[in-house]
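A.,

Following up on our hallway conversation. Structure tokens first:
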């Protein structure tokens, strides 16, 4: 059972096309999945030429036309980028429109069971919005186009698995969104994901919102009034959850394997420890030496994994972008897809 994996092009003005070509240049990829790109074929061809790659671009109009052979890149061509007008490293409505359309097409292919999982290269939120598509990120696009109400962002790198109660909202708004029912839902999503990863009885740490998890109400009431009751309810439902725990303690224990998964209350609370592990800055050469980590959207009727870095406009087209995170995103999508294929066989 070798799953078909659709990889979206990302913003054509960013590093997406470049890291795709680098990932698809690895023979091992084709031993574990049937990968194809959803996006603009000319843009992928341009990335092939810029990198001096020997890969051939196979332009397809439907998934059945893909050859899935090492040495070629199957591109489901949307023909939506005018290369003569594209400026690498620049925000533009054209690039935003192309990136958005590739994501929507991949979602439709997955919903139609033409592909078994989707993997997304980075988009630029400003470009997407400039094109008239008012979303704050991939997660919200996927939720909207799959009509999903209960969903969450999960970040994975080594021992650290972090899910978020809130994501792309102002910090002031995030505090108001910390509610018992939402926290319980997120604990459940994280538990189910860990089981899917092969962890039979995952131990879950739930972060507090305020300093020292509120310290008995001295620094805020959300921890005692919303998070603690959520953890108690989750335990009653059979989940191995602990909290609220001061995040500075919880994440230090999690990276050593004490927790199988962590619940963060807001975007930066979860992203900062995650990127401290996966992102390596080379100060001598003033560049990122390595960018690792996978972003998975939980709660969807389809599979979506992603790199957890941006479009890196400042290095687009220079050939130095790391494909590490994309390799990992594809690696995580494969067992998730096989797991789902196995379940559909039994129905």
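Then the amino acids I'd put at each of the 347 positions:
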């Amino acid at each position: 059972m070798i799953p078909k994996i659709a990889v979206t092009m990302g913003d054509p003005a960013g590093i997406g096309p470049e890291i795709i070509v680098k990932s698809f240049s690895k023979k091992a990829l084709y031993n574990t999945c049937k990968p194809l790109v959803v996006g603009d074929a000319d843009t992928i061809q341009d990335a092939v030429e810029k990198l001096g790659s020997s890969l051939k671009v196979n332009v397809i109009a439907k998934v059945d036309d893909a050859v899935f052979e090492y040495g070629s890149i199957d591109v489901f061509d949307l023909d939506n980028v005018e290369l003569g007008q594209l400026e690498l490293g620049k925000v533009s409505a054209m690039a935003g429109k192309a990136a958005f359309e590739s994501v929507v097409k991949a979602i439709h292919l997955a919903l139609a069971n033409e592909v078994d999982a989707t993997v997304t290269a980075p988009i630029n939120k400003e470009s997407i919005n400039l094109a008239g598509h008012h979303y704050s990120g991939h997660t919200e696009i996927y939720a909207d186009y799959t009509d999903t109400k209960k969903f969450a962002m999960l970040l994975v790198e080594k021992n650290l698995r972090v899910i978020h109660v809130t994501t792309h909202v102002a910090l002031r708004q995030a505090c108001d969104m910390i509610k018992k029912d939402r926290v319980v839902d997120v604990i459940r999503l994280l538990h189910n994901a860990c089981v899917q990863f092969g962890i039979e009885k995952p131990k879950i740490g739930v972060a507090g919102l305020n300093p020292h998890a509120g310290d008995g109400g001295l620094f805020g009431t959300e921890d005692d009034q919303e998070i603690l009751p959520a953890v108690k309810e989750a335990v009653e439902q059979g989940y191995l959850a602990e909290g609220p725990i001061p995040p500075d303690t919880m994440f230090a224990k999690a990276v050593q394997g004490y927790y199988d998964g962590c619940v963060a209350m807001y975007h930066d609370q979860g992203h900062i420890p995650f990127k401290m592990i996966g992102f390596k800055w080379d100060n001598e050469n003033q560049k990122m030496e390595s960018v690792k980590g996978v972003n998975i959207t939980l709660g969807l009727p389809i599979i979506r994994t992603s790199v957890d870095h941006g479009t890196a406009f400042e290095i687009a087209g220079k050939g130095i972008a790391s494909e590490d995170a994309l390799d990992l995103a594809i690696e995580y999508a494969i067992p998730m897809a096989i797991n789902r294929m196995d379940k559909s066989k039994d129905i």
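The mean pLDDT is 93. Curious whether your intuition agrees with the design.

B.
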